[in-house]
Amino acid sequence: MPRQIRLNAFDMNCVGHIQHGMWAHPRDRSMHYTDLDHWVSLAQTLERGLFDGLFLADILGVYDVFDGQPDASLRNAVQIPVNDPLLLVPAMAYATQNLGFGVTCNLTYEPPYTFARRMSTLDHLTKGRIGWNVVTGYLDSAARGMGLAQQPEHDSRYDVAEEYMQVVYRLWEGSWEDAAPLHDRERRLYADPARIHRVKHEGRHYKVDAIHLSEPSPQRTPVLYQAGASARGREFAAAHAECIFVNGQFRHNVRDIVADIRAQAKTCGRDPHDIKVFVGATVVVAPTDAEAQDKLAEYRAYASSEGALAHYSASVGIDFSRYGPDEPIRFVSNNAMRSNLEAITVRSRGSEWTLRKLMQMMVLGSRQAPIVGSPSHVADEMLAWMDEADVDGFNLSRTVVPECVEDFVALVVPELQSRGVMKQAYAPGTLREKLFGRAGRLPPSHPAARCRW
Ligand SMILES: Cc1cc2nc3c(=O)[nH]c(=O)nc-3n(C[C@H](O)[C@H](O)[C@H](O)COP(=O)(O)O)c2cc1C
Questions:
Q1: 56 and which of 85, 179, 268, 344 could share a cystine (Cβ 3.0–4.6 Å)?
Q2: pTM here?
């Protein structure tokens, strides 16, 4: 059987996520992000299209690197205003049965003890459909909001994350034994104290002496997502992640990153295919290639290159308002998204990037060139990515909502199914069981498994 494609919808609890300016399109509904109906309806459409998950991004700061201020981001609603992603999940989970929810939470600014409980609560409420996108942040504006002068140094954020993972694994996996909850009305025993263990941790960054507050949830540890692609980021991903998000314009670049992560996972004693890799993509589809090109032109009229530049400046930590149109973009070591900057500097394989070239890529208000065409053209492109870059699936960002999701479900999903690369129905079980096609918890090769009581 050919490899089955995995699909995540990529979204955020805000107006402008990746394709900036689309909110102004007359048919776009992203301004309804404060309305639960908007999210419930999205989740139901995704479930109709057998999407594996809805991945919700989040940031705790504002993009204020472009021109040294947040004005361009505020004018264009570039991930600001932004609401809490976790609070959307229970309503969407209530309205669906199978869709997974990957939610971004930044560990730099929250103690592991309270965070572990919040994830367990969501794992209970979703009946085992929750995932956590482990991020450490990349914005100084977030650090300032949290009372720090600037964010911690790039690689040391991953060191803190290593310790954080050890603590949350122990809370999720090591505190309550499976047999601890007795739920025994006759003997009036809710839980067996002898089977509930205190987690004592005293490390460089965290100190915990507590039992986990939640009783065991279906997955215990949520499905772990990660998106760091720098050398240190990949090392972390290879050790911990079950799903990895990568971005890239070119298949050969992404293939190198994926090969490295899978090789490192093997070195850590993991099966390299215990990691599902999702590449970011934007799709504009219509019944024919010509209609899709017309749709792209129509969307394009609303794209904001100012918004795209404000986003990109903050992502890579470079103020592009200071660059001339044809000045080559240079690598500087900073604390933002290192891999993104490397992709257009040291890893650009001889082709020099300039502001003009970046702006040419920003056709829909982001730096991601969209896949545009008929269902068969889109499916060809997606399958070429899977073959050539060894990715397992896609992280599909929105353009004009909800029509972009509805079009994809109506046109591309049946095409993928007819080619035998997409499921006809959801598999049973938790999100982890659905994704990896095997029952039970994290495999023994995963570091969380070593934290069981
Ligand atoms: C698809 C994708 C989604 C991401 N979502 C978030 C997010 O929601 N919040 C966040 O703080 N960082 C997010 N990141 C940033 C990563 O967590 C990480 O900081 C970034 O990829 C740079 O990692 P590196 O410095 O190891 O290269 C995302 C990255 C990618 C590729």
A1: 85
A2: 0.95
